[in-house]
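can u pls check wat happens w/ adenosine monophosphate
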Amino acid sequence: MSQPELLLFDTMARELRPFNSIQANKVGLYACGPTVYDYAHAGNLRTYLFVDVLRRALEINGYEVNHVMNITDVGHLVSDADTGEDKMEKGARKQNKSAWEIAQFFEQAFFDDLKLLNISTPSVICRATEHIQDQINFIQELETKGFTYQTSDGVYFNTDRLADYGKLARLDKQGLEAGIRVEMAEKKHPTDFALWKFSGDKPRQMEWQSPWGIGFPGWHIECSAMAEKYLGDVFDIHVGGEDHIPVHHTNEIAQCQAKNGHVQANYWLHGYFLQLKKEKISKSGTSLRLDALIAKGYEPMAYRYLTLTSHYRSHLSFTWEGLSGAQKALHRLRNKVAFLPSNGKVDESYSELFMRHINRDLNMPQALALVWEILNSELLPENKRATVLFFDRILGLDIHKIETVEIPEHISRLVKLRTQVKQQGNYKKADAIRNQIHDLGYQVNDSGDGSTVTIRS
Ligand code: AMP
Ligand code: ZN
């Protein structure tokens, strides 16, 4: 099979670029991880599903992926302007637990969600609180190079010292200086950001000694320090949600450029948001948590299917109808595949087409459409199965899983009636009932020891 070239949309270049790794057959991938002060919501999970598909796509292209993900368990302030409370301390207060307990609990809940969604575990998981010294060292280097200044509440990065600050987001720094009213406090420029915050006179649960005074690190410095520790000062891909473009990734880049003289990643990829009637989804709302979806009778994998129906660079509008449709489609898919014989061969030309969709910036909607096209094609049934299951290495839908569907009462009654009339020898009536069941969306499968019913494929 000839492999089509892998193209990825790089936010920095604002265009599709052929992917070339630094080391042959190896990829260093840094994905910004969760802030563990509450449960993840479906939006957050959409971003991790995107990262998972990216990782699987790289793997199927023959790369060994060193996937590093941080856990933000300190330092993410409520406001992007470096004011307000630390989200962890706030979460702890709200739940009447210690910040450490909160972090541990929600980190576990996050990994439970990833498992339910069949998301591969990162190769390295690193917590901000376990890398305080690395962050202090990083800040000290920035200080030596003259990129920092101190105020009464912390140590700040001076964005004025970098000529191309904000290039990832195409930030208009001059416009920002003149126009937007940002909470400045003692900051010299609106875009300056905290590297280290002092505890001050407010009691804190998470705080450390530093050369500048007792306090805690800023949010951006944790990613710069840990990415460099585990992937080196230049690595292949950095990913996160689209909200990271103007602040978090912009500031990560500024720190690395200031310290090392270059941008740390060769490709910057961003997953667009899941939206709820065009509104922002917040962690404080509980309705879009994975456990809430499960409680409403949805399989976690139905949500995975739903996210595959839209491109990662499009907003996805969440609706319950959409999720129901995804669940039905997934069940239909599994049912179809379950009835196909094994021992087939992966079809070369369909695989090439599939890889073309994947390698054109992860076009999952088209890849998914191709799955259905194959199932309705003239391919040999066993080859259909082999090909679709090969595709599932990227889709990650567990298509081979045998579907156990609940048959509604009115259908069970019809099946019983059909068995009775068949036993009485009335085959014409039995066939008519079979057709009726078929029209209602189900399929009777007769076997030696009785009839079983599945959703019609
Ligand atoms: P947080 O736990 O708040 O740090 O966010 C974890 C990840 O979820 C980040 O990569 C965010 O960019 C991403 N994210 C936040 N809200 C959404 C959303 N509505 N849709 C998709 N991704 C999101
Ligand atoms: Zn980050």
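The mean pLDDT is 92.
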